[in-house]
């Protein structure tokens, strides 16, 4: 049975078994498959890492503070590890600011339900499961650059997430039950990459090349910096450390 409500057809189902069968069909959606989600996590991590390199290149003071923390916690006799993460507070703040400063998905991710239906059982009990087609395009970039929430929002400032009154952590991975399940993979991958780069290299402008424009990003749903050049200058002879750890 169907009803016409405000120009939209609503399917009314009086059988719980039918409702369950319809819900189970959702598993055939590509968006529900782990492989599809994992691909999105990988793409988002790569874009975020490139943004982190751009931010460190354009903000040498932030880069130097990151390196000082790495030297204090890790030293030069070994590489950073995941166990160091709890002690690398400034590096963690750099990663949070990277996600806020240039979110990979500036408009969020649209979600849509496949069916609109109301489930009714019996006369005395009314229960409804309304699966309305809904697009949840959230202006993530606007939220994360709200000057009421974030002071000087267009500046790259990791210190905003430190101290006794830190600003809210960025919600770049979504909200509620639809939050990205691969956020832990993305966060851990970005941490170990950025920590290792800062430990081993000084990121400098390439001689003869202009400093990359911090606003030069693609205009696709998945946003990342346009190609730019930089120089990775070794801070010390770390090859001997790598050889020792590889044994």
TrEMBL record:
The UniProt record lists the keyword Transmembrane: yes
Assigned GO CC terms: membrane
Cofactors, names only: heme
Membrane disposition: Single-pass membrane protein
One protein family per Pfam: p450
GO molecular function terms noted in the UniProt entry: heme binding; iron ion binding; monooxygenase activity; oxidoreductase activity, acting on paired donors, with incorporation or reduction of molecular oxygen
Species of provenance: Cylindrobasidium torrendii FP15055 ss-10
Subcellular location: Membrane
Name of the protein in question: Cytochrome P450
